[in-house]
UniProtKB/TrEMBL annotation, chain A:
This is Glycine cleavage system H protein. Its cofactor is (R)-lipoate. The glycine cleavage system catalyzes the degradation of glycine. The H protein shuttles the methylamine group of glycine from the P protein to the T protein. GO terms for cellular component: cytosol; glycine cleavage complex. Binds 1 lipoyl cofactor covalently. PROSITE patterns: BIOTINYL_LIPOYL, LIPOYL. The glycine cleavage system is composed of four proteins: P, T, L and H. It holds the Pfam family GCV_H. Belongs to the GcvH family. It comes from the Bacteria. Residues 19-101 form the Lipoyl-binding domain. Keywords: Lipoyl. The modification N6-lipoyllysine is found at K60.
TrEMBL record, chain B:
The keyword Oxidoreductase applies. GO terms for molecular function: glycine binding; glycine dehydrogenase (decarboxylating) activity; pyridoxal phosphate binding. Keywords: Oxidoreductase, Pyridoxal phosphate. It catalyses: N(6)-[(R)-lipoyl]-L-lysyl-[glycine-cleavage complex H protein] + glycine + H(+) = N(6)-[(R)-S(8)-aminomethyldihydrolipoyl]-L-lysyl-[glycine-cleavage complex H protein] + CO2. This is glycine dehydrogenase (aminomethyl-transferring). One of its GO terms (biological process) is glycine decarboxylation via glycine cleavage system. NCBIfam families: PRK04366.1. It comes from Paramagnetospirillum kuznetsovii. The lineage of its organism: Bacteria, Pseudomonadati, Pseudomonadota, Alphaproteobacteria, Rhodospirillales. Residues 171-287 form the Aminotransferase class V domain. The glycine cleavage system catalyzes the degradation of glycine. The P protein binds the alpha-amino group of glycine through its pyridoxal phosphate cofactor; CO(2) is released and the remaining methylamine moiety is then transferred to the lipoamide cofactor of the H protein. Its EC number is 1.4.4.2. Residues 362-462 form the Glycine dehydrogenase C-terminal domain.
Length: 125, 500
């Protein structure tokens, strides 16, 4: 899991080759509480880094999920649309939101690694 | 304390009431109608009813009991203290209700000839006068039917003014993070993009951040004052100057007008338009789905764009302008007929019966009550900001830290104590918000009782009674609902035989 990179908005991305898998962090799912609705992007949608890519709603709040990188959506995770509760169970694993073909891999260097993200979370307490 | 399960499911006088579709028996009827004569099928164009409508068959006493029982399960301002923040749940004087029910006002038809409804037009015109007087603004659009509708009306006037000046490219609206959710929604409805403005540590708009966001594409700022942290935006004059300096307009959300009526004329603050929730500030029951009314006052810069209809003084008395008129550039019409007339009657009755001294005292009592709550609770709850508040007191959940009790649990426990909970988890700028607005309605006795209950609950939470809080409410017809299940698999419609 050490190859995951994080944004300040609590998205994570894990990259293999030129394909990234994007989700929200365990911290984010915990802060949201029980997730009741998820919307994921359509395949082929072009996203710039920071664009609104997906929607996640809990009993407490509705939030956008921003794309950590620029690229083209390969597919959304239909499983979490059918069962939003999976996001609470496996935010940093099986409950990924979408996969994306990266158009600029250099953007990854702007994201935090696990240690930097953990340090960032400490500043939020 | 064990509870006895009754044979009927009822708990004493708390009746376990079924849905009306589950009541009654086929053929049961409450009225004696004459037998229908021969049916002329041609009049129906050959259309025939093939299946029963599925309406319940009930006698009159069954219907009366059903709805009386449901009404007894309701909790409103007439039942008890209702400190729902940013909602101004205050007493609606019975005098205003009585006036609104006068047959000469209640039984009018909007299509009546104007010469037969001069009194009604005088009500609209008279209320418009007092709303302009109370805000210092030169014009008012009376027809918006609610707060958010008024927001949209004001934004449409702003958009029309920009387009008229050839500045239709201004599409960005600045909205503080503490704003009501309706503000960004209204801006989006108007075709604008929304850009959030952060707050400073003292809960007010960050003026420097605001200035940094200004630009040639900004249409307006939408600001609530006092804001939803219950704080007066003390830099509002500088904010208005900055906005106008950038060629944009200044929209004020008047949801919290109750705090400043008779104290501040919003025109003096540099505001270009503001909606007024008549159903909050000026005596109309609300929270039950309406109707409300959101007249929107406009500055000289926006007055020409006010939507039709409006009342003018003509040769033959008062006249409704419903179409083009020289000099005016209305952006259109926002509502059928002439606005929420019944609400206008209540508002005018309220304003006239209170008088200027009464209105001033109401707003100061509302602020005094909120500060009394804040002062008497700050040592056991955690006030979010230092210093006095305006019409509502904002606390966050720091006082619950490590207790295992959340803001939600605390609110549910208040229901067991017989109170409607405060607003919770809003505004979003503080963690686990508890927002209390007592309004001028409440006596010191009521506030003292409430304060004693809140202090007792806070002490219980800190003493480790988390389990008790988690299972609240226990004294209600239904206990803690599974909100997650309700959201994930909502059952939105009763079907025969579904037994749900």
């Amino acid at each position: 899991m050490s190859d995951m990179r994080f944004t300040k908005d609590h998205e994570w991305i894990k990259v293999e080759g030129d394909t990234g898998t994007v989700g929200i962090s365990d911290y984010a799912q915990h802060a949201l509480g029980d997730v009741v609705f998820v919307e994921v992007p359509e395949p082929g949608r072009k996203l710039a880094k920071g664009d609104e890519a997906a929607v996640v709603e809990s009993v407490k709040a509705a939030s956008e999920v921003y794309s950590p990188v620029s690229g083209t959506v390969i597919k959304g995770n239909a499983a979490i649309v059918d069962q939003p509760g999976l996001v609470n169970e496996a935010a940093e694993g099986g409950a990924w939101f979408f996969t994306i073909k990266l158009s600029n891999a250099a953007e990854l260097s702007e994201l935090m690694d696990r240690a930097a993200y953990d340090a960032y979370l400490k500043t939020l307490e | 304390m064990s509870e006895t399960n009754s044979i009927s499911g009822n708990k004493g006088l708390q009746i376990e009431e079924k849905l009306i579709f589950e009541l009654g028996n086929p053929g049961c009827i409450g009225v004696d109608l004459p037998e229908p004569g021969p049916v002329d099928l041609d009049r129906m164009g050959g259309v025939r009813k093939r299946e029963p409508f599925g309406l319940p068959d009930l006698s009159e006493p069954q219907v009366v009991r059903h709805y009386t029982r449901l009404s007894q399960k309701n909790y409103g301002i007439d039942t008890g203290f209702y400190p729902l923040g940013s909602c101004t749940m205050k007493h609606n004087p019975r005098l205003s209700e009585k006036v609104a029910r006068l047959p000469g006002l209640a039984d009018l038809h909007p299509f009546q000839p104007q010469k037969t409804v001069q009194g009604a037009l005088e009500v609209i015109d008279g209320l418009a006068h007092w709303l302009k007087e109370l805000t210092g603004m030169p014009a008012v659009a009376m027809s918006p039917a609610a707060g958010a509708h008024g927001e949209w009306c004001g934004l449409m006037a702003i958009r029309s003014a920009h387009e008229d000046k050839g500045e239709g490219h201004r599409r960005r609206v600045l909205v503080p993070e503490s704003a009501h959710g309706t503000n960004p929604a209204s801006a989006a409805m108007c075709g604008y993009t929304v850009d959030p403005i952060p707050a400073k540590d003292n809960g007010r708009v960050d003026l420097d951040a605001l200035k940094a966001k200004l630009g040639p594409d900004v249409a307006c700022l939408m600001l609530t004052n006092p804001n939803t942290c219950g704080l007066f935006e003390s830099e509002i004059i500088e904010i208005a100057k900055a906005i106008h300096g950038a060629g944009a307009y200044f929209y004020c959300d008047g949801a919290n007008f109750n705090a400043i009526v008779g104290r501040v004329k919003v025109a003096d603050l540099g505001i270009d338009c503001m909606h007024i929730n008549l159903h909050k500030t000026f005596s109309t029951p609300h929270g039950g789905g309406g109707p409300g009314a959101g007249p929107t006052v406009l500055s000289d810069a926006l007055a020409d764009y006010a939507p039709v209809p409006y009342v003018v003084h003509g040769k033959n008395g008062l006249e409704l302008v419903e179409g083009p008129r020289e000099g005016a550039k209305p952006f259109g019409r926002v509502k059928g007929y002439h606005g929420q007339f019944g609400v206008f009657v209540r508002a005018l009755a309220y304003i006239l019966s209170m008088g200027s001294d009464g209105l001033r005292q109401a707003s100061s009592d509302a602020v005094l009550n909120a500060n009394y709550l804040q002062a008497r609770l700050s040592d056991v709850l955690s006030a979010s900001f230092e210093g006095p508040c305006m019409h509502e007191a904002l606390f966050d959940d720091r006082f619950l830290k490590d207790s295992g009790v959340t803001t939600l649990d605390f609110a549910k426990a208040l229901i067991d104590e017989g109170y409607h909970p405060m607003t919770m988890y809003f505004p979003l700028v503080v963690h686990g918000a508890l927002l209390m607005e007592p309004t001028e309605t409440e006596s010191k006795d009521t506030l003292d009782q409430f304060i004693a209950v809140v202090r007792g609950l806070a002490a219980k939470a800190k003493a480790g009674a988390a389990e008790e809080f988690k299972s609240a409410p226990r004294n209600t017809p239904r206990r803690r609902l599974d909100e997650t299940l309700a959201a994930r698999t909502p059952v939105l419609r009763w079907k025969a035989g579904s037994n749900q």
